[in-house]
Amino acid sequence: MTASEAKEQQGRIDTTRLQDIARAYTQTAVLYSAIDVELFSHIDKGADTEVALSDATGLRPVDIDRLVTCCLSMDLLRWADQSSGRLENAPDVDRYLVKGKKTYAGPWMTFTRNSVPDWFRMTELMREGKPTLLGMYEDITPESARKYHESTSSIGFGAARRFVRSVDLSGRRHLLDLGGGSGAYSITAVKTFDGLEATVLDLPPVVEATKDYIAQHDVVDKVTTHGADFTQGEFPSPCDVVVMASNLPIYDAEVIASVVARAFRALEPGGEMHLIGEILDDDRRAPVDAAMWGMNELICGSLGRAHSRAECKGYFEAAGFVDAEVSEFIPGTLARCFGRKPA
Ligand SMILES: C[S@@+](CC[C@H](N)C(=O)[O-])C[C@H]1O[C@@H](n2cnc3c(N)ncnc32)[C@H](O)[C@@H]1O
User: Fold this and answer.
1) Most buried residue, 224, 248, 333, 343, by most Cβ within 10 Å?
2) Which domain holds residue 138?
3) Residues 94, 213: one domain?
4) Do 265 and 126 belong to one domain?
5) How far is the CA of 132 from the centre of ligand 1 (A)?
6) pTM of the full structure
7) In terms of Cα–Cα distance, which of 223, 173, 169, 171 is closest to 201?
8) Is 326 part of any domain?
């Protein structure tokens, strides 16, 4: 039962939920600003009172008071000791929003910042937009891909580490990484499983950025790139694992079904495919994040939308995969659809 359904059952209907939604953008803005002024990083370094934060950031005390109050109310900050005014970061803030930590994900948290004005033009875009198949990827250049993957890699390598912890690819020989971007999944997988090689397939300008990550991680002998548009043509073969991560909502059902069918053809008998993405529950009531990534495609100018678990399983079964199933990958955010090609 949702919180609003619980209130309804108690006969309590009021405006609070609607007011929260109406001003949800204020929370986004506060988070962006706290990241801009490195509030959480300063606290981590010991500037953990409002006076110290004012000195460290150069902001007026009144603005630090406002920012800290908002962050306390959003549970981004907590009191380490209220009597002495000492603050501390919430555990997720400590892990992901302190600059300099290996787990720092600030670039990912602000990944969609440039599109904020367009989110507030949504009605206009729905009425007058002219979507294309590739949306924002139509005009991508090696330079914009490098910037883009600075953000995705700040979260993608963590997701890839989770992938290799949850999926055993021992004995597999070749992984095909569709829309692999920074190559996070391929790089992490070849470092984890002996004898595994990988091909990152992404748009031709994007693989220029992929090559940087492959070199940085010293896996040039194990990971290659293939510049192509995965909406068309057959895939490099043979491979015994296909991964497609975090690009599901960019496309509609027809394209995704076709990608899954071509992946099936490229796989050796007994091979496996993993489709990881923001996947909706079958009643489409959650997660909100999956719904919003679908709407993000309006903003990005494509025809993509959010897909449900049953739809993803359906794409796999229609392609010929067996044992198709969807499981939680990162609860509340990402799910993983799996299928095996019969031996
Ligand atoms: C959000 S990123 C995910 C990157 C990577 N899979 C990860 O999880 O870190 C989406 C990727 O899909 C790629 N992509 C989108 N449409 C594509 C297409 N039609 N053909 C090839 N790659 C595509 C983009 O260029 C981008 O690198």
Assistant:
1) 248
2) 118-340
3) no
4) yes
5) 16
6) 0.94
7) 223
8) yes
